[in-house]
């Protein structure tokens, strides 16, 4: 099946990024957020990104204009009832995502594909929330979406071959490289990444080094573009904690237990770059 129109639920950084790359690939997009002002802000953010790209000579002004013409906004899945594929990109909270999927399942065609950008919640569980669960798949984009090339595809045990093929073709049309992950907590990227971040938290907690020294050591010693504690701040410490908790519960091994210092920062409201303070001050 060729995807002719796309719905993205959640107009935050991830959702707006997904909407942008889809629209740049020539796909009409309905960007949905329950807060209309937030949806408008998401669309305005895309326009600002495109204008910067025009200023740098990366795209032509007419390409930016055509991209924006493909993006409309809505406040309910009912505004995207005509779409044949939806990507959920709301906060990493299971109860919130469940409400979104139930609404999408009711509003869109029974054959519409429903994809989740979750970074940790089992896709098999999500698929059980809707009728025709064979149409549900995981489509995990990396942040920032317009720059990062990878998309993790995660098949639920219910996902059909046709849904997988269509979703992969869509991601590739959007210029992404796909990897296929088994439906296990954390999938591929976070299964490896979150324990590394969590271990850096334990190292900081134990006084192995300062936050700056831990990050410098990892950047220069392993050739990473940013250290694990800076990356955690960029992701959001609340998101890192949530994923760590999902992995600890889902895999049942103590090596995945969240570091107390990570939980402490979240309880203090020091969530990273988005609150101007995490392991570093911004």
Query: What value does the Rg take, in angstroms?
Result: 19 Å
Instruction: Report the CATH topology name of the largest domain.
Output: Rossmann fold
Total domain modules: 2
List low-confidence stretches.
Answer: none
- Any idea what the shape is? globular
The CATH superfamily of the largest domain bears the name: NAD(P)-binding Rossmann-like Domain
Q: Termini, distance in Å?
A: 46 Å
Summarize the structure.
This protein is of the alpha/beta class and 282 residues long.
Describe the protein's architecture and organization.
By secondary structure, the protein is α/β, with parallel strands linked by helices. The chain contains 11 helices and 8 strands. The chain has an 8-stranded mixed β-sheet with strand order 3-2-1-4-5-6-7-8, sandwiched between helices. The model has no long low-confidence stretch (mean pLDDT 96). 47% of the residues lie in helices and 13% in strands. The protein folds into 2 domains: 6-181, Rossmann fold (3-Layer(aba) Sandwich); 190-274, N-(1-d-carboxylethyl)-l-norvaline Dehydrogenase, domain 2 (Orthogonal Bundle).
